[in-house]
Design goal:
This protein is α/β, with parallel strands linked by helices and 445 residues long. It is built from 18 helices and eleven strands. Helix 3 runs parallel beside helix 9 and helix 8 packs antiparallel against helix 9.
């Protein structure tokens, strides 16, 4: 995530302070603070809606789209917490004039939007709710944002809607609402997509490899990037992100290797046929092959092999030494294993390490240190796989001198929680329940 983007967001949210600080000398400071918190929540929600559009200017400012979605999530959470704080601290100021039916309605809608946000925030962070239900409910966030905007516009406040601070907040809300409306349009109607057709499909380990050919012009992409893809089939028209598991080629063909992890991905094997129409977004992501003579360590967990499979198609003898650790659960379930082994046989600068957890222990930082030909003090490390595995390896490698800036990864999770398991574990540890019920922590591991 780029610091420049974080500074921009902080500046946009803090800008109304220029107007609110002087008001504290004229009115109840706690009420003025509550009103500022409400404005900050609206601005955060507006920015969050803009981030959800995925327009081109976003990645250059904030970084890869994976980081943008993390920022989108935390801005939303911060906005909901701010709204709750705004509601808790009395924002009412006496002597602002007579209440009207419009201000009463604004007050009611503000309360309604608060409870709505709390419910939708809970649905978002409780990740066991099915993706399609979460996606549908998540769209209601914008409608509640519209109610909150109405609340701000017509509630009694110590300045009019024509004052600079109010005009600024309303402008931000307008931009946010326009972004929300933009995201409501189906991808192939509201936003530019690229038509492709399925050329063929085949099983690759426990995943489905889908090759697509362009109908017109092919998209431009780098090995390791991902696209949002939808198909013209019943129940498959919803857009989902998938990593492109092939490198750019002259024919414009793309390959996606998809592991069945839910209802949507499970249907692909049964329904996708040659000739099926697909709609692709442009390519996103900053998880790209660095052409360098430096030693590199690549770590893939299961379906996380997909970007590395694309990278291997662009490796040349002049590239630095590479150690690829491919963690699998049995050879029969490992996507692209045959292609990876063939590449290792052809490339002198590639050392392949197959970590089959059905026969050996899970990959650890010690294993990487002892098996790799690279020097951990200088090597660049690239990871793609489960988040829990990533964090365990990152902690282990950090203890061996691998700086954060040399451990590269993408989140690859458009929807994620807020670490509820970690919070519960912390509560158990601090409350003393861990010693009384030792099995509790084990069940949360």
């Amino acid at each position: 995530m780029r610091v420049s983007g974080l500074i921009l967001i902080a500046a946009l949210i803090a800008a109304p302070l220029v107007h609110f600080v002087p008001l504290m000398a004229k009115h109840d400071p706690s009420a003025i603070f509550s009103q500022f918190i409400g404005c900050a929540a609206l601005i955060a929600m507006a920015i969050s809606q803009v981030l959800a559009t995925r327009i081109k200017i976003i990645e250059p400012i904030f970084g890869g789209l994976d980081r943008v979605y993390v920022l989108h999530k935390w801005l939303g959470i911060a906005a909901v917490v701010s709204i709750l704080l705004h509601d808790t601290i009395d924002a009412e100021i006496n002597g602002l004039g007579t209440e009207t039916w419009l201000s009463d309605l604004a007050e009611t809608l503000g309360e309604f939007s608060l409870y709505g946000f709390l419910i939708l925030a809970l649905i978002t962070i409780v990740t066991f709710i099915p993706y399609h239900l979460w996606r549908w409910s998540h769209k209601l966030m914008g409608a509640l944002f519209a109610l909150s905007t109405f609340h701000f516009a017509f509630i009694s406040k110590p300045f009019s809607n024509t004052d600079p601070v109010s005009a600024y907040v309303l402008l931000m809300c307008t931009v946010g609402l326009a972004a929300y409306i933009y995201t409501l349009f189906p991808a192939k109607f509201g936003r530019k997509t690229h038509p492709y057709t399925v050329k063929h499909t085949k099983q690759s380990g426990g995943a489905l490899a889908v090759q697509l050919k362009p109908v017109d012009r092919a998209i431009q992409h780098s090995a390791g990037q991902f696209c949002f893809v939808s198909f013209d089939l019943p129940h498959l028209q919803e857009s989902h992100p998938f990593t492109i598991s092939s490198a750019p080629n002259s024919a414009g063909l793309l390959q996606f290797t998809i592991q069945p992890m839910g209802d949507y991905t499970a249907r692909l094997s049964d329904q996708l046929k040659p000739g099926t129409r697909a709609h692709l977004s442009r390519a996103y992501g900053h998880f790209r092959l660095r052409r360098t003579a430096k030693s590199q360590i690549w770590i893939a967990g299961g379906i996380g092999i997909t970007p590395f499979n694309a990278w291997l198609q662009e490796i040349t003898p002049g590239h630095g030494q590479i150690d690829l650790f491919y963690c699998i659960r049995g050879r029969s379930s490992a996507p692209h294993l045959e292609q990876i082994e063939q590449a290792a046989g052809k490339l002198d600068n590639l050392n392949l390490h197959i970590i089959d957890t059905t026969k050996q222990a899970r990959l650890s930082a010690n294993t990487i240190e002892h098996s790799s030909s690279a020097d951990l003090s200088t090597a660049e490390i690239y990871f793609c796989g489960p988040a829990q595995m990533r964090e365990a390896l990152r902690r282990g490698l950090r203890s061996k001198g691998v700086a954060h800036r040399r451990f590269h990864y993408e989140e690859f999770e458009i929807r994620s929680g807020i670490g509820i398991r970690k919070i519960i574990k912390l509560v158990i540890q601090k409350s003393g329940l861990a010693s009384k019920y030792p099995d509790l922590l084990g069940r949360l591991a």
